[in-house]
Design brief:
Length: 504
């Protein structure tokens, strides 16, 4: 059975790129009848952010990417927080020392900085702790067994480093990028266990992927260079035969295509780059998310799925079940995918149009209350049905349709002035008088009556109709005038037309 994991670090709000990684892992797991596992990689305690783990779980839940195993769900191969698995990492690191594949290092920060300076002075472009350097350093490869024992007994802090032998070719068959070859001579002796007893990512993820029987690793391309070390670790442990397959996803790029989309780009460009908002006591530190922007979770899923993948057909709107059915990792692009916010809005618009009032009503009432409106349910539903095809986000309906809930209109004076003619006022007044006299008032009847007045007046329909809309809504743009009038009712419609007519 295929087992895939999403393994974020709780170092802050989860970037949308991380969500895409989770999505692709989820889709493949579901497609193959396997397990989708959430593992929290919290071994870097210096970067740990309180609340981040809960944020990750809420984000996955909001998007419907529910793990089969994880910190909340439990499972047969837990615990699912690396901080709760610390003791086993040291055991595995010591196992590598015993087999000669790793070594103790007692180098101080001063010593490490000194060697970096010396290497730089020698013309080394990228100084690193490797086979050419370790013979000069304070490690168990250079110290006598007695010295090593003494340092260990004294409890002198140490790290454990992977011993990388130069001159090896390391082959990786990446499902997206094909064969990738690394020269071990270019690799450093990675720290596996830090002086605080915590493992680095390299050791912890390999050990956990093995113990949790992970079959497929799908992660961002920034981890591709590290994969060479991971392959060496699998070899060192004797696990190469059960090593997972690797797929390294392309970057999500800024809208202009220039560089990776960062966490700061949302504030810079004015669109969300996080799934959920994250409020803060300090407003300037609060984060907006796709949820606070008013996006539908299914639309976000659909949008993200196509950021780096396509089905090879013309179909663009996919339910989660359809994505599970059609997802093919071989159709993931190698090149980076531009983050197109306009496209995200388009996707959301398609999903808003599919919403029923039963599913949207509660949120609409919340949005209305936030604006100080408490409309009756039948009116709110009618406004929803009228405007949902005109908005990109459900949250836009209340501000766009505010004129249904208040008589305090905000007139677009510039647009009204463009359409206004000296004889417009009397014609508007005449229309108001005719509508006031109707015994039966609905949109169709009112429209027919107004049309007769306009045609007999000699003024162009294209002049009066925008002004009628402005009279009812405050602006010349919007839905059908007589659909608006029907919802407003006879009294409000007449009064508003009279009010604008009197402005001349």
């Amino acid at each position: 059975m295929n087992r895939l994991r999403f393994a974020p670090s709780p170092t802050g709000a989860l970037h949308i790129g991380g969500i895409r990684t989770a999505l692709y892992n989820f889709l493949l797991a579901r497609q193959q009848g396997g397990s989708f596992i959430l593992r929290i990689e919290d071994t870097d305690q210096t970067r740990y952010v309180p609340g981040a783990e809960n944020y990750i779980m809420r984000a996955l839940d909001w998007l419907g990417l529910t793990p089969d195993e994880g910190p909340e769900q439990g499972g047969p191969m837990g615990p699912y927080r690396q901080s709760e698995r610390i003791s086993r990492y040291k055991d595995f690191a010591l196992q590598l020392i015993e087999s000669g594949r790793a070594y103790y290092a007692w180098d101080t920060q001063e010593e490490l900085e000194s060697i970096r300076q010396r290497l730089t002075e020698r013309g080394v472009a990228t100084p690193k702790y490797d086979a050419a350097v370790r013979g000069e350093m304070n490690n168990s490869l250079n110290l006598s067994p007695e010295q090593v024992s003494r340092l260990l007994e004294q409890g002198v802090p140490y790290t454990i480093r992977l011993k990388v032998e130069p001159g090896q070719s390391i082959y990786i068959q990446d499902k997206i990028r094909g064969e990738v070859v690394f020269d071990s001579t270019e690799l450093d002796d990675k720290v596996l266990l830090k002086a605080d007893g915590y493992p680095t990512y390299h050791l912890a993820n390999v050990v956990d992927d093995h113990l949790m029987e992970i079959t497929d690793v799908i992660r961002g391309e920034e981890w591709l260079p590290s994969t060479a070390h991971h392959v060496l670790l699998y070899r060192a442990f004797g696990w190469e035969d059960t090593m997972p397959t690797f797929s390294h996803l392309p970057l999500i790029l800024r809208p202009d295509g220039k560089g990776k989309l960062s966490k700061r780009d949302g504030a810079r460009f004015g669109f969300p780059v996080f799934p959920l908002g994250w409020p803060s006591e300090h407003p300037e530190e609060s984060i907006e998310g796709f949820d606070t922007y008013g996006f539908e979770p299914a639309a976000v899923i659909n949008f993200l799925a196509f950021l780096g993948w396509n089905p090879g057909t013309e179909q663009e709107i996919y339910s989660l079940d359809e994505l599970i059915r059609d997802f093919d990792p071989e159709r993931i692009h190698k090149a980076g995918a531009r983050f197109d916010y306009d496209k995200a809005l388009w996707y959301n618009q398609q999903y808003v149009q599919q919403l029923s009032y039963a599913s949207a009503g509660e949120r609409l009432r919340t949005y209305a209350a936030a604006e100080g409106f408490m409309p009756e349910d039948h009116l709110l539903q009618a406004v929803f049905e009228l405007l949902k095809a005109r908005v990109h986000r459900l949250i836009e309906i209340i501000p766009q349709g505010y004129y249904f809930f208040t008589d305090a209109l905000k007139y677009d004076e510039a647009e009204i002035s463009k359409k206004w003619q000296p004889d417009a006022g009397p014609v508007l007044q005449q229309i108001a008088d005719v509508l006031h006299g109707l015994g039966h008032f609905d949109g169709e009847t009112a429209g027919a009556a107004a049309k007769e007045v306009i045609q007999s007046s000699g003024i162009k329909m294209g002049v009066i109709m925008p002004l009628l809309r402005a009279a009812l809504t405050g602006t010349t743009q919007g839905p059908d005038v007589w659909a608006i009038a029907q919802l407003l009712g006879q009294g409000k419609t007449v009064n508003r037309i009279q009010s604008l007519a009197g402005r001349s």
